[in-house]
Design goal:
alpha+beta; 7-stranded antiparallel beta sheet; 20 strands; about 20% helix; about 35% strand
């Protein structure tokens, strides 16, 4: 994903583009489990389990509440029950670190009045303080909207980089938290298996007459910036317009995201365009591109590049193929723009299967971006080009003496 650690935001939003909690790294603890007193979670065996569970073949279930999860096979994967939770864990740790690669499913009863969205914002802030990179996307789990985060974070002691995929599924008075985690290389190797486990999860039955919690409205601060179809950033003086009402505004790692509904199927991520804006006298778009290119090449990805002009600013567009965190083929597009002290980065992500359906909308939204070109130029002393004396003189025709004489009335 785009590395923006070099940028300084013009506003107080975080400047990280990259969407979880890693239990084997010293990450800040999520305030949601603290709030619900669900931590510290202990998984020592059946004696510590509050609810009766069953294991039939490769399916673990809490029959009383209707929660189920399946493992890819008994040979390589094991179930570890806990208090209102179950972990599907690799039996033999291929990465050599503990705990092993796993998928945990937790049921967190929510006290009345719990503000899950505010707690998620706190999660994000804490993770980014811990040098984590976070991206978010929307997914549907058996028809229930969920907020999915992919988190990467290096261990300051060992240098080990972990990948965590965290999914928040909010239901009335209950939060279902799904967390898949492993070190980065192992996560990529096991992505199809981790995806299989996550997609096998069946959620607890809703209470009679209950309805799923509707998607939250625009985040505080974002609502004031969106008028109709247009998002305006007062700090930078830029704007972007969503393609149509099939797209909705949200946040991704603190940056504005525009997400497409009604295209993705099953547990697939919704197509998303993310816009990052920053202003600083010391910004250098070349350094950002160099860092991003190094990151892509580390994953053996070489982008195709071309020039692209947006809002009167000449920039660079990259396109490339990159798998989703759960291993499915994905397509990415990035546009890098700089005018004066303003930098704009646009990233479009979608599974390759949906690329054709959304590509025209992506281009429409990219082309709708407006940047403060004149204001930036004034700030950098390049707002008003100096006139060329020769050109100015040539542009002003000398009067024809005869014509002037003829036009003057006689006294």
């Amino acid at each position: 994903m785009v590395s923006l650690r070099l940028l300084k935001p013009a506003i107080t939003l975080p400047i990280l583009l990259i969407a979880g909690c890693v239990s084997f790294l010293p990450l800040p603890l999520s305030p949601i489990p603290i709030l619900t007193k669900a931590f510290p979670e202990t998984v020592v065996g059946p004696g510590n389990v509050q609810r009766a569970y069953t294991i039939k073949g490769d399916t673990f279930a809490y029959p009383q509440i209707g929660l189920e999860v399946s493992r890819p096979g008994v040979t390589d994967w094991e179930f570890v029950p806990g208090n209102n939770a179950v972990t599907v864990r690799l039996r033999n740790n291929v990465a050599g670190t503990e705990p092993r690669p796993s998928v945990a499913v937790q049921l967190l009863p929510l006290p009345e009045g719990t503000d899950v969205e505010a707690s998620k914002v706190s999660d994000l802030v804490n993770l980014q303080k811990g040098n984590a990179a976070v991206t978010t996307s929307l997914r549907f789990l058996h028809g229930t909207l969920s907020d999915a985060w992919t988190i990467t974070q290096p261990d300051p002691g060992t240098g080990l980089v972990a990948t965590v995929f965290r999914v928040y599924v909010t239901q009335p008075n209950l939060l279902v938290l799904l967390t898949a985690s492993a070190d980065r290389g192992t996560f990529m190797t096991l992505a199809p298996k981790l995806s299989q486990i996550l997609e096998s999860v069946k959620l607890p039955n809703l209470a009679a007459g209950a309805t799923p919690v509707p998607p939250p409205g625009l985040a505080p601060g974002l609502a004031a910036r969106v008028v109709g179809a247009v998002y305006k950033d007062p700090g930078v003086g830029a704007s972007i317009t969503k393609a149509d009402d099939n797209w909705v505004y949200g946040l991704s790692g603190g940056n504005v995201a525009i997400r497409r509904g009604g295209v993705a199927q099953g547990f697939d991520p919704t197509p998303q365009l993310t816009l990052t804006l920053a202003q600083s006298d010391g910004l250098d778009i070349k350094k950002v591109k160099e860092a991003d290119l190094a990151s892509l090449k580390a994953d053996k990805i070489v982008p195709t590049t071309k020039t692209r002009t947006v809002g009167g600013v000449v920039g660079e567009e990259w396109t490339f193929s990159q798998p989703d965190v759960l291993g499915k083929p994905g397509t990415g597009k990035r546009v890098y723009l700089q005018t004066g002290k303003t930098v704009a980065l646009i990233e479009c992500t979608t599974l390759t299967a949906y690329n054709t359906a959304v590509q025209a909308d992506f281009d429409k939204m990219i082309d709708s971006l407006t940047l403060p070109v004149a204001a930036d130029a004034a700030a950098t002393g390049a707002a008003t080009p100096k006139p060329d004396a020769a050109a100015t003189g040539a542009a002003t025709p000398k009067p024809d003496a005869a014509a002037t004489k003829a036009a003057s009335p006689k006294p």
